[in-house]
Amino acid sequence: MDEVPLVPGECIKAVAKDVMYICPFSGLLTGTLTITDYKLYFTSLERESPFILDVNMGAVSRLETISVPSHGENTRGLELVCKDMRSLRFAYKKEDGQPEVVELLAKHAFPLCKGLPLFAFLYKEEFPVDGWKVYDPMAEYKRQGLPNESWTISKINSNYELCDTYPSLLVIPTNIKDEDIKRVAVFRAKHRIPVLSWIHPESQATIVRSSQPLVGPLDRRCKEDERFLQTIMDANAQSHKLTIFDARQSSVADTNKAKDGGYESESFYPNVEFNFLEIPNIHVMRESLRKLKEVVYPTIDEAHWHSAIDQTHWLEYIRLLLAGAVRIADKLESGKTSVVVHCSDGWDRTAQLSSLAMLILDSYYRTLRGFQVLVEKEWISFGHKFAARVGHGDENHANSERSPLFIQFIDCVWQMTQQFPAAFEFNELFLITVLDHLYSCLFGTFLYNSEQERVAKQVQTKTVSLWSYINSQPEDFTNPFYVDYEHHVLYPLASTRHLELWTSYYTRWNPRMRPQMPVHQTLKELLYLRAELQRKVEELQREASSSHSLSSSSEHTSSPSHNGGTPLHTTV
After folding, report:
1. CA dist 387 to 119, 191, 192, 206, 477, Å?
2. How does DSSP classify residue 402?
C-alpha cells in the first residue's frame, strides 16, 4: 500500500484492513482505511490507479452505525454524514486486532467533546506568506479615507467591555460622548451599536451595521439612540434621509418586538425611511440546505431535477439576499443616502448583506486580497458565530444554532462571478477552497465566535491562517480573465431566471456531474499564457517607444489618456 500523505503535525492513529466502502456510484470497494487526527483516508486494493477517498474529520457532521445484513456476521456498518453535501458508508468485520473504528473516528471528528484540541492547533506547516497580516483594520479604514471630520476610529471597545462580540476598533460618529455610546449599547441587542462598515468615496454616504433596538411591546425609546442615528444621517451632507434595512421578515420582527426586541419607529426617528427585506431566519436556511442535499446526493432524479431544486427554495433565498444587497448598494450609489442594516443580533443576515453590498460598490473587495479583507472584516472581526453555525469539533449535530449562512454568502459571490466573469480577480477554485476550509479545522481563520474568543485562544500565534496557504500560491486561485473594473458598480441581476445552482460545489461528489476536462487546470494554463502574452506586449511597447524616440526626437507627441476620473456604472 502506498504511504498515506500527511500534513506537518498529523499523526496516524489506526489502520483498518479489509474495509468495504459502499460507494453509491461504483458499488462495493474493498481496501484499507487509515484514521489520522486530521483525516480519514481510504484506498482500494487495486494496484493500478486505486480508488482514494480523502475526507478531513472537520467535515463530518455525525456518525451513525447502520445495519449491513448482507455482509455476514460480525460485520459492522458505519455512515459518516458530512457537512459538505456527501454521506459515506463503510462496512468492516469486527475482529480481534481490528481497531475500534467508530470510537476513533468520533474522537478525532469531535475533539472538543473528548477534551482534545482542534487540529489547527497541531498543524505545523510553514508558508512564505503570513496570512494573519492580510487584515489590518487601521489600514483598511485609512484606505476608505477614515478617520475624517464626521467619523472617528474609537477604542471604546478595546477590552471588549462595551460589546464582547464586536472588534476592538470601531468607527463611530465624532463628538458622541462615551456615556451616550454606553446608553445606546444597552438599547441595542447584544450591545451591538450602529458602527460604520463602509463609506462612499464621493458622497460620504455610509453602510452602518447594528443589531435590533430593544423597543419591546411598549415602544421603549432611547434619546441617545435616536440622536446617534441622526448624527449618522447628518454626517452625509448629500441627503436629508437615513434608510434602515431590516433583513427580517416583518412578521418575525413583530414577534421579536413582543419579546423585547423590535425595530425603529419612523415616529421616533425623523427622516428615517424603514424597509423590511423579508429574509427568513437561520432555521429556514438550515432546512433548505438539508433538502438540497437530499436532491443532489447520492442520486439525482434527472426527470424532476428543476422542480426538485425549486422545492428546496435555496435559489429563492440566494435571490432574496442578492436583491437586498442591490437595494442597499443602490441607495448609497444612486440615492447618495446612508444606510443602517440590521437583523436581530446583527451577525448573520447583516453580515451577508453588508459584505455583498460592499462587493457591489467597491472593486477592491473583488481582488484576491481585498476579498480576504472583506471576509476578515465583515464576518470574522464583527462576530459571525462560526463555531456555533458550523459546529467545529462538536458532535451535537442537531444543535439549532447550526446554519449555512456563510455558504449562502459564498454562493451569492459565485452567482456574481457568473454574471461578471472578468470583474473578480479570484476564481471558482478559491471560493470552493474557502468553503472546504470553513469545515476542515486545518487553519485558525474560521474558528470561534468572536475576536475576543480568538484573542483569548491565541489563534494568531498558535494556528496558521488560510490566507497564508492561498497567498503562497496565488496562481492557483487567480482568474485569467480578470480586468480591474476600478470604480465600476456591479449590480447583479437578482431574478431567479438569472441564478443557477452551483453544481461545481453542491454536486461535485457525483462523477456524472463533473466536467470531462478539469477546468482549474485549463484556467491555470490560460493564466500562464496571459502572462507570456503580457510580457511580449511590454517588450514590443519598449521596442516601439525606443524606435519612436529615435525617429521623432525633435517633436513631442502624446497619446490620449484613459485615466478619466468619472466612475462608471455597469449593469448586465
Report:
1. 14, 20, 19, 30, 26
2. -
Phi-psi group of 262: left, alpha or beta (phi > 0 → left; psi -120 to 50 → alpha; rest → beta): left
* Cell numbers found for residue 60: 463530518
What is the helix, strand, coil percentage profile of the chain, to 5? 40, 15, 40
Q: What is the CA radius of gyration of the chain?
A: 26
Grid cell at residue 564: 478619466
What is the four-CA torsion angle of 214, 199, 383, 364, rounded to 10 degrees?
160
Cβ-contact 15, 34 below 8 angstroms: yes
Integer angstrom CA distances of residue 549 from 529, 535, 542, 560, 562: 30, 21, 11, 17, 22
Q: Are strands 242-246 and 60-66 parallel, antiparallel or unpaired?
A: unpaired
How large is the angle between the packed helices 314-333 and 305-312, nearest 10 degrees? 60
pLDDT-based confidence at residue 557 (cuts at 50, 70, 90): very low
Active-site positions?
343
CA distances to 45, 70, 512 from 26, rounded to whole Å, are 14, 18, 11
Say whether 291 sits in a helix, a strand or coil. Answer: helix
SS3 at position 22: strand
Which of the four pLDDT bands, split at 50, 70 and 90, describes residue 477? very high
Nearest of 126, 42, 39 to residue 90 by alpha carbon: 42
Q: How far apart are CA 167 and CA 377, in angstroms?
A: 9
Closest to 45 (Cα-Cα) out of 14, 63, 19: 19
* Residues 145-158, mean pLDDT to the nearest whole number: 98
CA 243-246-248 angle, 5° bins = 160
Question: For the chain, what is the largest distance between any 2 Cα atoms, rounded to a whole number of angstroms?
Answer: 96
Rounded Cα–Cα distance for residues 76 and 92 (Å): 5
CB-based contact 378:197 (threshold 8 Å):
yes
pLDDT at residue 382 greater than cutoff 50 = yes
Tens of pLDDT along 512-537? 887 666 677 778 788 888 888 889 99
What are residue 381's phi and psi, to 5 degrees?
-70, -30
| Separation of alpha carbons 382 and 375, rounded Å | 10
pLDDT digits (tens, 9 = 90+) for 405-458: 999 999 999 999 999 999 999 999 999 999 999 999 999 999 999 999 999 999
Vertex 53 angle, CA 51 and 57, to 5° = 170
Q: What SS3 state is found at 144?
A: coil
| Beta sheet of 206-209, edge-to-edge order | 195-199, 206-209, 338-342, 242-246, 272-276
pLDDT at 570 over 80: no
The Cα 271–Cα 10 span in angstroms is: 59
Output the nine-digit C-alpha cell for 291.
Answer: 433538502
